[in-house]
Write a structure and sequence with these properties.
Distance between the termini: 9 Å
Number of strands: 9
Largest sheet: 5 strands, antiparallel
Shape: elongated
Strand content: 15-25%
């Protein structure tokens, strides 16, 4: 609205000044978001197959395509309102300094860009509401239960990674009936390293809850160790505890896969390009001759620039 109160020449100068002040900040933000997004994608997707076989991977691919369309529209809008930049692009691609992008309704392209970005936000919401491809792979990993038979009691213990916790499932089955020493409870304690004999103190055990007769479940914090042992103690009335040693390992020593390595390198390149662009732009704007317009910055006489900027200011 304030631009509409200015005369057309002043309106054009104000519009260009506002656009040029906003463009560097927007470009830096896009570069940083692209770099961090690429890095996070490599952290959450194990391989290329997971990108198409999981809901998270599919949403990620669609989001990349949608953001590509949004960046294309943003680039088009930038060239439309910045004839100097359009002239430089024309010289770079061999179309000449008089090249300008095909004319289209600025209102339509800006609206399309906003709609595409809203779709990208919706896809981001989907990605945060479903498990990542790496979590799906970890959840589907086959675990080997450990068993033991002591004094007529058959015990099965299993540890399953669950995010930042370790899920422990213990099943007890009476081999002798009636069982003279019934189970009174089950505790679990995690100790560092691979143990062959129980070392945890009785007070260190975390009690598991009774899900149904003979089945106990609970969670303990993942110690984040390359090797640990879950000491599962089954308490019985009138008899010593039955202790199962279940070895396990956290994902701290997971090797870096090719997808994560490639996305990490690409993210680093994007950050370097963004930083280099910022340095170059700042040097140009602070140089003594930066205030002198170059021929490429002067609008061509055969291109009606003012009506286009009037359209942008009115809308």
């Amino acid at each position: 609205e304030p631009l509409r109160r200015l005369a057309p020449p002043d309106r054009r100068v104000a519009a260009l000044a506002g656009w040029r002040a906003f463009s560097p900040m927007a470009a830096v933000s896009v570069g940083v978001l692209a770099a961090t997004g690429v890095y996070e994608a490599g952290r959450h997707v194990d391989d290329l197959g997971a990108a198409t076989e999981s809901a998270y991977g599919t949403a990620l691919l669609v989001k990349v395509l949608v953001l590509g369309v949004a960046l294309g529209l943003a680039g088009y809008n930038t060239l439309v309102v910045n004839p100097g930049l359009a002239a430089r692009v024309g010289r770079t691609v061999g179309l000449g300094p008089q090249w300008r992008p095909p004319r289209a309704s600025l209102r339509g392209t800006v609206t399309a860009e906003a709609v595409v970005l809203l779709v990208a936000v919706g896809l981001a919401a989907v990605m945060t509401s479903v498990p990542t491809a790496r979590e799906v792979t970890a959840a589907s990993a086959v675990t080997v239960p450990h068993t033991d038979t002591v004094d007529g009691l058959f015990v099965t213990a299993e540890t399953v990674p669950s995010g930042s916790d370790i899920r422990v499932v213990v099943r007890t089955e009476e081999v002798l009936r009636p069982m003279p020493w019934p189970v009174t409870g089950v505790d679990v304690a995690l100790v560092e390293g691979t143990e062959v004999t129980p070392t945890a103190a009785p007070a260190d055990g975390i009690p598991l809850g009774v899900v149904e007769p003979g089945r106990y479940e609970g969670s303990v914090a993942d110690p984040g160790l390359a090797a640990w042992t879950a000491e599962v103690a089954v308490h019985r009335a009138g008899r010593p505890d039955v202790v199962l040693l279940v070895p396990g390992s956290s994902a701290v020593d997971r090797p870096v896969g090719p997808v994560e390595l490639a996305t990490g390198a690409l993210a680093l390149v994007l950050l370097l390009v963004t930083g280099t662009a910022v340095v170059v732009v700042r040097r140009r704007t602070t140089s003594p001759t930066s205030g002198t317009p170059t021929p490429s910055d002067v609008p061509s006489q055969d291109v009606p620039e003012v009506p286009l900027l009037q359209e942008a200011s009115h809308r």
